[in-house]
Structure prediction request, 525 residues.
Amino acid sequence: AGMRVAVVGAGVSGLAATKCCLDEGLEPTCFEQSQDIGGVWRYTEHIEAGRPSLYPSVISNTSKEMSAFSDFPFPEDFPVFLPNAQFLEYLRRYAEHFSLREHIRFGTTVVSIRQQPDFASTGRWNVVTEADGKQKTEVFDAIMVCSGNFSEPSLPLHSFPGIERFRGQYFHSRQYKHPDVFQGKRVLVVGMGNSGVDIAVEASRVATKVTISTTRGAWLLGRVFEHGYPWDMVLNTRLMSLIKTNLPRPLSWWLINYKVNQWFNHENYGIQPENRYFLPVLSDDLPSYILTGRITIKSGVKEFKDNSVVFHNCPEEEPIDIVVFCTGYNVSFPFLEESVIRVENKHASLYKYVFPTHLQKPTLAVIGLIKPLGGIMPVAEMQARWVSRVFKGRGANMSPPMSQNAAQAGHVLFGLTFDEVLKTEWLVYLDTLASFIGAKPSMLGLLCTDPWLALTIFFGPCSPYQYRLGGPGRWEGARQAILTQWDRVLKPTRTRVPPGSSSSFPSLLAVVGFILLLAAVIFGF
Prediction:
């Protein structure tokens, strides 16, 4: 029999993990506690314990070309940023296309995963699962943990003095579904991550008053970016990444700050973050809502009174009826022993954010925990491609070896709070893992053999298809997918064809000439 791999969860990461195992000839069994795939992307009206919960208006933060699995582009008629229902539809098509469902056991909860007594030599695990009230134990050769980090809300009430005497209503953003609870009320949103901003914007359409309380501020990006192009297709390019990673830290911070403040001056809107690099928050609406007085920004909460709140550096109290705590989630692996993945103050100790640093055999991996500034799907998929090859022992680079001294050397602590300082540039991380398995595109090689493709890859968006051009898991359609990515972006919006229209592209030759010149300069030194 082949190598048996247990995959925990059938969301984005679990589906990618299952598919990559199949690609490598492993035998995956995916355990999903609910009755369907999709994880965080499957909206349910009622809130299920231990399952992520979204509000109906959630839209993807990354554009479809930058969020696609690398060998399965989105349909061209799908919108550029995807409402959750369409995102789920894409995941269904993916599962269908690669016949993943037959490997998923629905309605099955993973209760515990424990090392076998002979783990040091075999690396095997005992997995206890429960379905229909009955428990069952099986042995697996390896584990991929894909249970995500949106299930256990973090609500540190002790950080909010006086909350126990507050007479209004309060809840965590996980409980939020529809804005009608805010009708005619004075609302306080605590926290300025993506959920906080979304909820504040929705509330302000029906509430009397909406205030966002933020300790550290945030950088805001609009999905609609320069010239109306998707933000990530403009910012996540190899050229930008090269500039960001090679500039000295303060300079690169200044550059990003400058770029972000071009849209509106964050200081004037009361949200300029301190001098640290945070994950930006995506909202096209917030600046105009602040400008029209529908939303007010205040500093952190000092204390709650019976019917009001007091902010730091602000003497007067503000009357409030409802508080929404958008305070993020805790990372938790209830089915693992704490010694396997040490989570300390929301940090997990994982090599490359994937492998626990102190196991004797690298037969357990965590997929999709990282929070990059870029699509999570290509990242989860790349992690799964690497992990499935490590499991198979295909000489996929696993340096440093998982020994005790390596545990010290490769001891990577990664913050998992929603706006923790991002230590990893999205593209650099993807490239690193891709180079482990030999799937990183060679810029110079391509420049000689396929210069047009090379330039598109370097100056254009770093879409995931680049990682299928060569190496294991090479996909025939990758080159075509890269060269047609803008067509799929423009198709859903260019729906009105004005009479007598013709293509208004500047002379292609001039553009190509200029780009070649630039390339020569850049690759020259």
In short: Confidence is low (pLDDT under 50) at residues 399-423. The two ends are 53 Å apart (CA to CA). The chain is about 30% helix and 20% strand.
